[in-house]
Design a protein that fits this description.
The chain is mainly alpha-helical. 48% of the residues lie in helices and 7% in strands. The protein contains five helices and four strands, in the order H-H-H-E-E-E-E-H-H. It has a two-stranded antiparallel ribbon. A hairpin with a 2-residue loop joins strand 2 and strand 3. The radius of gyration is 25 Å and the shape is flat.
Length: 136
């Protein structure tokens, strides 16, 4: 039974790896970038701003491992070998880093943004419990 469970766990890991490759490639093959709508909604936004945002998210680097020849301020920089965005993302994922949140503040969990502070409803719930209970 243990060999069956171990074999299934290994198959699940391999399947998740291939699914992650497939999804990552599909998301990156689609034409355009994540900032195209931002550029359309704000006409004052120049290409230099878009390039800076792409560099912030490593979208200016190659998808798969290979040569990376950056151009900074119109000047061609020396080429170097880059590990690729996918392998960088996979390495961060294995370390538990799921990336930056664009909606949450640092240190606040998903439930912390919407939940009231602890104990805020304690008094009201106690009164409701007393009112609904029978005589003691």
């Amino acid at each position: 039974m243990t060999t069956f469970i171990i074999r299934r766990l290994l198959q699940s890991v391999v399947l998740l790896f291939f699914v992650s490759i497939l999804i990552y490639l599909i998301l990156n093959i689609v034409p355009g970038g994540p900032f195209d709508m931002l550029k359309l909604s704000n006409p004052r936004l120049g290409q230099s701003h878009i390039d800076r945002l792409n560099a912030l998210l490593d979208l200016d680097k190659p998808l798969l491992p290979g040569k990376y020849c950056p151009e900074v301020a119109g000047e061609q920089q020396p080429c170097r070998l880059d590990q690729g965005r996918y392998l960088r993302w996979l390495g961060r994922l294995l370390q538990g880093d799921l990336g930056r949140s664009w909606t949450m503040k640092p240190g606040m969990g998903a439930e912390g943004a919407r939940a009231p502070p602890p104990g805020a409803g304690g008094g009201a719930s106690r009164q409701l419990m007393r009112a609904s209970s029978g005589p003691t």
